[in-house]
Design a protein that fits this description.
This protein is α/β, with parallel strands linked by helices. About 35% of the residues lie in helices and about 25% in strands. The chain has ten helices and 14 strands.
Length: about 325
């Protein structure tokens, strides 16, 4: 399968690194940037056959099987729409779009055209994420009742975080991971949300705490931010023990405790490149099967999480130029 990348920023480099040895026949075949020079330099670094100085050129390349959209959040809708209108299936970097309205529009267009589209929230596709779910369902920690997840990096001076016109802030960049962590293991039946947010000088959220209450009595306490470093841990606590996850956005280590004694340890697969490859493998599987969405990240889940983030931003007063009805 030949992948074409729209955008040549840092996350595009991560994808190119993951695919440099063509794992499972997945090849980084083309790179497109607004600057031909940048595209050519990127292509040379990773030995990519095709370099394009415009996105329009690349999506018209008949040999591109899948377009990976790696531009800022603010541009996901336009660039994914461009790919879909040219008949290309899409893997769209998280957060999927600026808001739920854009997400609904893209998914509707993909369905009309019978084209595959999915969100590149890489944790949804990782073997370690499925191991966590398997452990919970095994009953080894008893009945799960409390989940905590934190994800913070020092990013307070990064342009993509600071600029509202790029859909900046911590939520769409980092908070999306803690929300997904809670959704993967505690589900969607949320009856109450309480949150607190620290705003930055440009009017975007810089760090936040989010508490979720579920109909069955479970709770999730989530933190995300761009103003500090933290342990990036997830803890899922049950009546008989707990599971500790090291690095919730790319799980590297899982430890299982019963009555405060460690009883099992699991580590990331020895053959994992950097974790970005798994979402591409799933795209390949779905395309070969003729699917237009993946059960690993269903369309309804992408839209639901976008609505959840819209509601949080509305409460905090974080508005993007793409918002029309928040």
């Amino acid at each position: 399968m030949k992948i074409g990348i729209i955008g040549a920023g840092w996350i595009a480099h991560k994808m190119a690194q993951a695919l440099k040895d063509r794992p499972q026949g997945c090849e980084c075949y083309a790179i497109a940037s607004r600057s031909r020079e940048k595209a050519e330099a990127f292509a040379a670094q990773y030995h990519i056959p095709k370099a394009y100085g415009s996105y329009e050129e690349m999506v018209r390349d008949a040999d591109v099987d899948l377009v990976y959209v790696a531009t800022p959040h603010s541009h996901h809708y336009a660039h994914s729409r461009l790919a879909l209108e040219n008949g290309k299936p899409c893997l769209v970097e998280k957060a999927f779009t600026a808001n739920a309205s854009e997400a609904e529009g893209l998914i509707s267009l993909a369905r009309e055209k019978g084209l595959f589209i999915t969100e590149a929230i890489w944790t949804r596709y990782m073997p370690m994420s499925f191991k966590i779910k398997e452990l919970i369902e095994s009953g080894i920690i008893g009945e799960p009742r409390l989940l905590t997840a934190t994800l913070c990096y020092m990013m307070e001076n990064k342009e993509r975080i600071l600029r509202p016109e790029l859909c900046g802030g911590a939520l769409l960049d980092l908070g999306v991971y803690v929300l997904n962590f809670a959704r993967m293991y505690f589900g969607t039946d949320i009856i109450r949300t309480v949150s607190n947010c620290q705003m930055g000088p440009t009017g975007v959220d810089m760090q936040e705490c989010i508490s979720l209450s579920y109909r069955d009595g479970k709770m999730a306490n989530l933190q995300a931010g761009a103003l500090c470093l933290n342990d990036r841990q997830g803890i899922i606590s049950g009546t008989e023990g707990y599971i500790r996850v090291d690095n919730i956005n790319c799980p590297e280590l899982i430890e299982v405790y019963r009555n405060y004694e460690k009883v099992a340890t699991y580590r990331k697969p020895a053959d994992m490149v950097n974790g970005y490859e798994y979402q591409v493998f799933e795209c390949k599987r779905c395309l070969e099967a003729g699917l237009i969405e993946t059960p690993m990240m269903p369309h309804r889940e992408t839209i639901s999480i976008m609505r959840q983030m819209d509601a949080l931003r509305k409460e905090w007063g974080v508005i993007f130029p793409a918002d029309k009805s928040l």
